[in-house]
Write a structure and sequence with these properties.
Elements lengths: L6 H14 L11 E5 L5 E6 L8 H9 L7 E6 L11 H8 L3 E6 L9 H8 L3 E4 L3 H6 L2 H9 L4 E5 L2 H5 L1 H13 L3 E5 L7 H8 L3 E6 L6 H5 L5 E7 L5 H5 L3 E9 L3 E8 L8 E11 L2 E10 L5 E7 L8 E7 L2 H5 L7 H15 L2 E6 L3 H4 L2 H12 L4 H7 L10 H10 L4 E4 L3 H8 L5 E5 L10 H11 L21
Parallel strand pairs: 3-4, 4-5, 6-8, 6-9, 7-8, 15-16, 15-17, 17-18
Antiparallel strand pairs: 1-2, 1-3, 9-11, 10-11, 12-13, 13-14, 14-16
Helix pairs in contact: 3-4, 15-16
This protein binds zinc ion (ZN) (2 copies).
Length: 485
């Protein structure tokens, strides 16, 4: 997705965004489309205008007629692949003879999510995703946020009684709430206390939380339940830091009347959990029993992950799950420098025995997220006496840069209700829980301690908080090796 776009291409996508912006389409997303024919001439354009009306692509294709043949379509959102009240737009683009489709952002809706692009590609259409991607997402941030997280887009309006008594502020707040695409409710902070409450409201759209007191919104912010805020502050008072510490970034400060200004804040979409798409599925017989291997692609970074599923896990509680980070040297070559390969085998054995469970094999987690080459470089430093954490830090790399968002999304797709997580690493549990995964138990996974990795495991205990009892080992858990170095 890191390609360079021409000024003309940006111009056409801007036009598509501008067409979509004024539309009120909830619960459908805002979408704009511009079709550019030979010589860079716009031959058709349009926007979706709401439920029951044609999609943006259909409007633009209708205008273009025969001129769509050989043309490029610029569309703010991935063309749909499912039949709703209207036939799939991906099929319509194919039928019209469009040869290239440039897309602002993937459709996060579970019914599309990468499938629109696949339909186009299978028909031989050149596709590109990500032109003005941030702007395309902001066009309907509530839609993207809801489809990714299952939660409504919550905007807090924070103004104390004095501010609300100021007429300019009162008018501004009314306008702000009126502008909401699909205002669900205006309520005070304390009534919205849990993700569960929000999830129940999610289908209905935006939620505005209005509160008088900056402090009452604090708990919601810290729980990650506020996605954006407009905060009215007295001119002269500087409260920007109050929000940025909670991951909201200051967008702009507008002047409201004489005495107040409005600070708009929002959480960066970069912090959203990634979009994963189920791509293929096959049975894999193993020494530990038969598993279904389900291949997932993360649409945000193109990484491909595998869920190895044993038995039925949908809507089950307490499913045994291993979230395994790819380790080529350990998993494939049985390297004795770490315990990864042994843990993977042990997890598969335990899940095979239980008859129900999931091994998530997460790619791109090599060396706790630093990559294969840097991991080997870190090994070289360890040969000079550094431990695993020091070596990563010496290379200017974070000690653990893995992200559990994709794993959480895959577990959600599999329909697992709650799980028992096979890990010695409390950070892994916390990382998954941060994305809403319900973990009812952390189950230790002891395997593969040996003379080569004993120091490595001790470092994981001492510096990374791993819970392994290094002294009290069951006999036979130590794999002896004849090779000494
Ligand atoms: Zn469509
Ligand atoms: Zn390893």
């Amino acid at each position: 997705m890191s390609r360079v776009w021409s000024g003309a291409e940006r111009g056409w996508m801007s036009r598509a965004i501008d067409l979509a912006r004024p539309q009120r389409t909830h619960p459908n997303p805002r979408v704009g489309c511009v079709i550019v024919g030979a010589g860079g001439k716009v031959v058709g354009e349009g926007a979706h205008r709401g439920v029951g009306t044609p999609h943006a692509e259909a409007v633009a294709l209708g205008q273009a007629g025969e001129a769509a043949r050989g043309a490029t379509a610029f569309v703010t959102l991935e063309p749909c692949s499912h039949s709703g009240r209207t036939p799939p737009c991906a099929d319509a683009l194919v039928a019209a003879g469009v040869t290239r489709v440039v897309i602002g952002a993937h459709d996060p809706d579970a019914r599309v999510r990468g499938r629109g692009v696949v339909i186009l590609q299978q028909a031989g259409i050149e596709t590109a995703v990500g032109l003005m991607g941030d702007e395309a997402v902001r066009l309907d941030v509530g839609f993207h946020h809801h489809r990714r997280t299952g939660l409504p887009y919550v905007r807090a309006v924070v103004a104390d009684a004095d501010a609300r008594a100021d007429e300019a502020v009162a008018v501004d707040i009314a306008t702000l709430i009126e502008e909401a695409d699909h205002l669900l409710a205006t309520t005070t902070g304390p009534r919205i206390t849990t993700r569960r409450t929000l999830a129940r409201l999610a289908e209905q759209g935006h939620l505005y939380v209005a509160t008088e007191d900056v402090e009452t919104i604090g708990a919601l912010r810290r729980a990650g339940l506020v996605d954006a805020a407009s905060h009215y502050v007295r001119i002269g008072g500087d409260q920007d830091g109050l929000w940025t510490q909670d991951g909201l970034r200051v967008m702009e400060a507008g002047e409201i009347g004489a005495g107040y200004r409005r600070i708009d804040l929002e959480r960066s979409p970069a912090g959203w959990s990634p979009l994963v798409c189920r791509r293929a599925e096959a049975a894999i017989p193993t020494p530990y029993g038969r598993f279904r291997a389900i291949g997932y692609e993360s649409l945000d970074d193109g990484r491909q992950h595998v869920a190895l599923v044993r038995g039925s896990v949908k809507r089950e509680e307490g499913v045994l799950v291993r979230i395994h980070s790819e380790c080529l040297t350990g998993d494939v070559f049985a390297s004795l420098r770490c315990d990864c390969g042994f843990q993977l085998q042990e997890a598969m054995r335990r899940i095979g025995e239980a008859g129900r469970g999931v091994v998530l094999y997460m790619r791109g987690h090599e060396g706790r997220g630093i990559g294969l080459i840097d991991k080997l470089a870190a090994y070289a430093l360890q040969e000079q006496g550094r431990d695993t954490v020091e070596a990563n830090l010496d290379l200017g790399l974070p000690e653990d840069s893995r992200d559990y968002g994709a794993g959480a999304r895959i577990l959600a797709d599999l329909g697992v209700n709650s799980l028992r997580l096979l890990t010695n690493n409390p950070a892994k549990r916390a990382g998954a829980e941060a994305y809403g995964v319900r973990i009812i138990e952390q189950v230790p996974l002891i395997a593969g301690e040996n003379d080569h990795n004993r120091n490595y495991l001790r470092t994981k205990v001492a510096k990374l908080g791993h819970v392994i009892d290094m002294e009290d080992r069951p006999p036979g858990s130590v794999r002896e090796t004849t090779e000494k170095d």
